[in-house]
Amino acid sequence: MGWIFTLSILSALVNIARAVLHPRSRTLLQNLLVGPMFHSAVAAVSGLALWAIWKDKSSARGWAVAASSIHILDFLRQFIIPVRPAWDYYLISLIVGIIGVVAFSWCDQEVVTPSSESV
């Protein structure tokens, strides 16, 4: 998932640059969901998740779930406001988001091994 977060950051930065270089008049809702504000949030949350995972922070799981949830929001935003229909792209985003949320929400249980002293 670290590679996916890295690609999300790079993709968001490209989309921010595209939005700044070719501005469009949008409503606040459109700007929040398809404009540079959305892509800035994607880059920030994915960056925090990648950094927390890389540094093995205790908050890594929460940031990773949040970053994966943004992929699910990326799929759902086509139903909130009309955007160009591209089911294949958004479906991949949904699959990645679900896999990430499930993977990082899974509770780790410590494995109890019998000690060698009892032998």
Describe this structure in words.
- With 119 residues, the chain is an all-alpha fold.
- The protein has one domain.
- Helices cover 72% and strands 0% of the residues.
- The chain has helices at 2-21, 28-34, 36-54, 60-80, 87-105.
- α1 runs antiparallel to α3 (36-54) and α2 (28-34) runs parallel beside α3 (36-54).
- The radius of gyration is 18 Å and the shape is globular.
- The mean pLDDT is 81.
The number of helical segments is 5
Cα-atom radius of gyration: 18 Å
Please state the average pLDDT score.
81
- Biggest sheet, in brief? none
The outline comes out as globular
Indicate the percent of residues in helices.
over 70%
Order of helices and strands: HHHHH
Percent strand equals under 5%
| Tally of distinct domains | 1
Distance between the termini: 41 Å
Unreliable runs: none
- Based on DSSP secondary structure assignment, what is the total number of beta strands? 0
**What class would the helix/strand composition place it in?**
mainly alpha
